[in-house]
Amino acid sequence: MARRTSHDQNFKNLILDYPREAVAFFAADEAADIDAGVTITPLRQEQLKERLGERFRELDVPLLVEWPDGRREALLFVLEEETNPQRFSIHRLAHYCLDLAEMLATQRVVPVVIFLHESPAIPRQLALGSEQHRYLAFDYLACVLAATPAERYLDSNNLVARLNLPNMQWAPEHKVEIYAEAIKGLLTLEPNIEKQIKYLDFVDIYTGLSDAERQLYESRYPQESTAMTGLAERLRTEGMQQGMQQGMQQGMQQGMQQGMQQGMQQGEQTLIRKQLVRRFGPLDEKTEQRLQQATTDELEQWAENLLDAQSLPDVFGEG
Fold first, then answer.
1. Using 50, 70 and 90 to split pLDDT, how confident is the model at 310?
2. Under 8 Å CB-to-CB from 3, ≥6 apart: which residues?
3. How many whole angstroms separate alpha carbon 243 and alpha carbon 264?
4. Taking Cα atoms as reference points, which of 68, 74, 80 lies closest to residue 27?
5. Beta-carbon-side half-sphere exposure of residue 107 (alpha carbons within 13 Å)
6. Which residues contact 69 (CB under 8 A, 6 or more apart)?
7. Residues 49-74: pLDDT tens digits?
8. Centroid of chain to Cα 245
9. What would the pLDDT profile of 1-43 be if each residue is shown by its tens digit?
């Protein structure tokens, strides 16, 4: 399983890239009154860190929703992703929300927690008090993706919902269909090709198709498969160009021939890294270091192994 920080970063990127869609999907109860005229702004991380000091959690995403016509006071959404429900602390979340409320001088705060997995042990309310009185009551909106029926969102026009179809609840025999609808949503709802490439990885990571399932997808959905092939080819080209550019810049000092060789090698590293992430999820530090230190011959062999590999060790000839 990928490291927790990788999941946090994946969802942070998703929320920052699509704040309106994220609020509409993850906090549907509160989003009903948010119309097209509002502005949604992520709070600056530097400002929060400076104001809240050590209490600040960088991977929480506070979004400020404002009505420009002034008919309603601004509303602060605090979105947090939790991969492992056992690590969730309602006390810490309450503390963080109170800090933000004090810092921004507002009582209009909506805490939202996105759980990848379901657990009966997840605390939903916090009450501080005695037998005589309750002095503090706190709860939050919980979006448990694994308990959310995917069938409700198969044709949703909310891109955040479509990208999260693989994280929702569905029967195993529908896995390829779920993947197809997520990819179709990405290709139809996101016109920017750079973001299409970026979130192709997101869908791949959380679906985890086997080679057989990928072949089935390609046969059932040839149009989307062709479009994905084009994205993958562009990704390969950009990776090679980026590596060539970096290597040639270094080559200005070390010699053009050596620079071009380094560029080709770095481009191959970029390509293999992307393919490994798509197949097996975010890479650990050891694998990253192995890629960076690889020779050209090793990279070529690993690229060939990738065609039939069923696991990460298979790629490196250790299966």
1. confident
2. 282, 284
3. 6
4. 80
5. 1
6. 37
7. 666 666 656 668 899 999 888 778 99
8. 28
9. 333 336 888 899 999 999 999 999 999 989 888 888 899 998 8
Main-chain phi, psi angles of 58, to 5 degrees: -65, -30
Characterize the bridge pairing of strands 109-115 and 75-82.
parallel
What does the block give as tokens for 252?
A: 């200005």
Q: What is the C-alpha separation between 228 and 251, in angstroms, rounded?
A: 34
Six-digit token string for 82: 């939790």
Half-sphere exposure of 73 (CA within 13 A, CB side): 7
- Whole-angstrom distance, CA of residue 245 vs CA of residue 242: 5
**What percent of the residues of the chain are helix, what percent strand, and what percent coil, each to the nearest 5?**
60, 15, 25
Angle between helix axes 211-220 and 222-254 (nearest 10 degrees) is 120
Is 78 in contact with 111 (CB distance < 8 Å)? yes
Phi-psi sector, 88: left (phi>0), alpha (psi -120 to 50), beta: beta
3-state DSSP assignment of residue 138: strand
Question: Measured between alpha carbons, how far is 176 from 208 in angstroms, rounded to an integer?
Answer: 10
User: pTM here?
Assistant: 0.73
In the block, tokens 């600056």 appear at: 44
To which H or E segment does residue 224 belong?
Answer: helix 222-254
